[in-house]
Amino acid sequence: MGAPLGIDTGGGGGGLVDTSRNNRVKSALFKGALLFSLGIGFVTLIALLVNVASDGLSRLSWDFITSFPSSIPSHAGIQSPIVGTIYLMGLVALFAIPVGVGAAIYLEEYADRDRWYNRAIEVNIQNLAAVPSIVYGILGLAFLVRGLALGRVLLAGALILTLLVLPIVIISAREAIRAVPASIREGALALGATRWQMIRRQVLPAAVPGIATGSILALSRAIGETAPLILIGALTFVPFNPDGLSSPFTALPIQIFNWTTRPQDEFKLLAAAAIIVLLVLLLTMNAFAIWIRNRYQRKW
Amino acid sequence: MTGRKRYGETAIRLLLLLCALVSVLTTVGILVALLQPTIEFFGEVSVLDYLTGDTWAPLFKPQHFGVLPLVIGTLSTTLWACVVALPFGLGAAIYLSEYAGNRTRRYLKPALEVLAGIPTVVYGYFALTFVTPLLGDIGLPVEVFNALSAGLVMGVMILPTIASLSDDAMTAVPMALREGAYGLGANKLQVSTRVVVPAALSGIVASFVLGISRAVGETMIVAIAAGAQPNSSFNPFEAVQTMTAYIAATGIGDVPTGSIEYKTIFAVGTTLFIATFLMNLVSIRLVRKYRQVYE
Amino acid sequence: MPETREQTTEQEQLDPSLESQPRKRITSHGALALPRVLAERRSNEKPMSSEPIFEVKDLTVAYGGKPAIEDISFDIGRKRITSLIGPSGCGKSTMIRCFNRMNDLIPAASVSGAIVYHGQDLYGPGVDPVEVRKLIGMVFQKPNPFPKSIYDNIAFGPRVIGMKGSMDGIVERALRRAALWDEVKDRLKENAYSLSGGQQQRLCIARCLAVEPDVILMDEPCSALDPIATARIEDLMLELKDQYSIVIVTHNMQQAARVSDMTAVLMPDVRDGDRAVGRIVEYADTGSIFTNPESKRTEDYVTGRVG
C-alpha cells in the first residue's frame, strides 16, 4: 500500500488542499440548515413580542392597571387579575416550597435507594412532572371544588397550582442538594453532628441559591398556567379583589384567555396589554432568579 | 456512649417522608378522580361506541359519544407541531453540541429556554392574531380557527425541550469517539451525523417522545386557535377540537355535576392521561438507557 | 538543536546480572534490560534513508498563550518507527497530535512553526485538516471503537472519504493487516464492544489502515492493555513498518527500546513556578539513546534516576 491517491511526492499542491467541492457544498448547506433551525425559534419569539407590543402598548396605562374588568372595553382594567395572580403566587410559594424542599431532602439524604418504595416515589415524581396541566385541573375539579366542596375559590386554585409545580420544585431542589459535595457532609458528621444537624447547618445553607432559583422558576411556571384554573372555575368576570382564601378570584392568564376569545377586536387589544404585564412580571422573576444564581452560586 | 434513641431525628425523618408522600397522594388523587367517573361513564356508554364512533356530540340531542373526532383533532395538531419541533429541534441541538463554541453555547442554551417559558395562553393569542392571518396572507385557505396555526405554534413551543434534551444526549457522547472519527479523515458533518447522532439516539428519541407527549397534552394554544368543533378531518386548514380543548370548554360551561355530560370530562381526561402516561414511560426508559451507557 | 547520528552496527552483549543495578555511567553492557531481540535486530539495520517523511521546524504549541512544547525541530524517517519518550506531562501527546492537526479540535490551542510533509507545510495556508487526516492516521491511548458492528467500524472510514472498491474486500484486507481477521471473521456483525481490550485496539488499528494512510501515529497505544496484548501489538508494529512510517508516543521505555528505530527524548523545562515547557533534549537511534546517550538528562531519564 503506501502513498494513496492525490499525494504528489514531488511536493506542490494537490492532496492536502483539495477538498472535493461536493463535500464543501454539503457541509455549508448543513451548517446553514442548523442555523436555520436555531433561527426559527428566535425569529418566532421576536415576532411574538413585536405582535403583542404593537397590539397592546396603546392600551397600557396606569388606568388600565388600576381598573377592574368591565364589559365596556374602554373602562376595563386588570386590577383584580393582577391581585389574584399575586395572591396565588404567594400561596403557592407558601405551600410548595416547604413541602417540595422537604421531599427533596428526604429523597436525597434519608431515603435508602435500594428500597422499592423509595424508587417508586422517584419515578412517580418524574411522571407527575410530565402530566398535562389540564389533568391537574380535573383533579382539582373532582376533589377540591366538588369533592371537598371548597368551591371555586382562591384556596382551591392555590392548592392545585401547588400540586402542579411541586415536582419541579422537588427536582430542582434535589439537584441543588446533590451538588453539595460529600466532603462537607462527612466533615460535619465526623464532628458528631446528627444527620438533621448536618443538613440544617451545612447542606441546606449551601444549597439555598440553587433551591431559590428553582423555586422562582417553578413559581413563574405556576403564574402562566391557565388550564387548571379554568377547570377550578376561576370565574372570568370578577370585578373585585379576592378578600380571603374562600373568595372567588381571577388571574392574569384567565383574563387574557377571556379577552382573547371575545370576537370584538377591542378586547383583543386589551388581551395584548394584559399579556405585556404578564410577560414583564415573568421577566422580572426570571431575571431575579438568574441574579441569585450568578451572585450566590458557589462552584465547588 | 450508648446509643441514645434520638426521637427528634425520627420525627423529622417522618415529617420529611410525609412531604415526599404528597406526590404519591397526588398521583392517587389523579387516578381516583379520573377513574371513578370514567367507570360510571362506561356504565352508560359502551367502550366500543366510545372508541370507534365517529361523532362527538355529547351536549346535543341526539347524543353521540364517539371520541374519534377529538383524537383526530389532537393528532392533527400534534402532527404539525412535530413537523416543526422534531427536525428543527434536533438541528438546533446538533448546532449547540457540535458547532457552537463554549461561550456561544452558554448564551444560546438559556436563550432557547426563554421560548419554553412563555405562557401557553400567550402563544395562543399569537397563533390566533398573527399566525392565522399570516397563513391566509400567503395564500393558504385557512379558516379563522384551524389546526395548522395551532400546530405550528405548538411546535415552536416544544422545540426548546427537544433541543435541550437532545443536546444533553449528544454532549454525553465521549470525545474519544469523535476523535476516532476525525482521525480517520471525516469532516464535521460526517462526524455529527454518522457518529454522534447514532451514539446518542436513545436520548434523542426520548426527547422526541417527550415533545410529542407535551403537544398532546397542551390545552391553551389549541383552545384559542384550533377551534371548538369536533371534526374528523385531517385537513389542516379546518377547525378541529382536541381532547384537551373539549375538556376546557366543557369545564368552563355549566354542566350539572353527575350528569353524563359532566362525566365526559373524565372519560376524555382518562384517555388523554393514558396516552401521555405511556409516552412518558417510554421516554423515561430511554433516558435511563443512554445514561447507563455513558455515565 | 539535537542532531541525528549514524547508527552503529556493533553487537551489544548483555550481561543479565547487571540488569537491575543502578549505574553512574552507562557501560557497553547496556542501560536497562535491553532485550536480546533488540540486540539481534541492530545487526541487520539499514542506515536511515535520506528522505524524511516529516521535517519539523521550530514547532511551538501553546494553550491559552502558555507554551506546552517549544522550538521543536527534528526529522522523522520514512518507513521507520520513531518513538517519543519522556516523563508525564512534558507534551508528548501534544506533539504527536500536531502531525495530524488534531490540536485543531482544541479551541485554546495555537500552533506555530511548520511540519513539512512531502514538500508541503501541514500548517500552511489553505491546507485542509480533513485531507491531512486521510493520509496521516492515528491510534489512541484508550481503544475507541464506535458503538457499531466490527464491520461498520472498519467500513466507516472508507465510506466517509468515498473510497472505491468492494467494501467486503477493504474490510478483510484491513483486518488481515491488523492481525485480527482470523479472530473476528465469523462475527463481523457483532458489536465492537464485545471484543477484548487488546482486540479493540487492533480493531482501531485496522480501522486506521482501512483508509490507506501514509503514516500511522500512535499515542501510547498499549498503555491500557495487558502485557500479552501489548506484545501482540508491538509485533504488529514491526510488521507494519514495511509499508507505513510510524510515530509512537510511549512512557514505557522498554517498549521504545523494543520496537523503535529512532527515539526522541522530550523533557520539561520548568519556568516561573510549576509551568513546564517540553523540549527535545536528544534525538538519535534508539540503541544510542539507551546505551550511550549524549545528554545527562537523557541518561538520568533512561536509567530511571529521574521520573
Write a structural description:
The complex is a heterotrimer of chains A (300), B (295) and C (307). Chain A is built from 11 helices and no strands. Chain A has 300 residues and is mainly α. Chain A starts with 20 loop residues before the first helix and ends with a helix. Chain B contains 12 helices and 2 strands; from the N terminus they run ααββαααααααααα. Chain B has helices spanning 7-44, 47-52, 68-99, 102-117, 120-137, 147-171, 175-183, 188-199, 201-217, 220-225, 243-252, 260-294, and strands at residues 56-57, 64-65. By secondary structure, chain C is of the alpha/beta class. In chain C, helix 4 packs across helix 5 (167-177), helix 4 (150-161) packs parallel to helix 7 (197-210) and helix 5 (167-177) packs across helix 7 (197-210). Mean pLDDT of chain C is 83; it is low at 1-37 and 42-47. Chains in contact: A-B, A-C, B-C. Chains A and B meet through helix 1, helix 3, helix 4, helix 5 and helix 6 of A and helix 1, helix 3, helix 4, helix 5 and helix 6 of B.
Concise overview:
The complex is a heterotrimer of chains A (300), B (295) and C (307). Chain A is an all-alpha fold and 300 residues long. Helix content of chain A is 71%, strand content 0%.
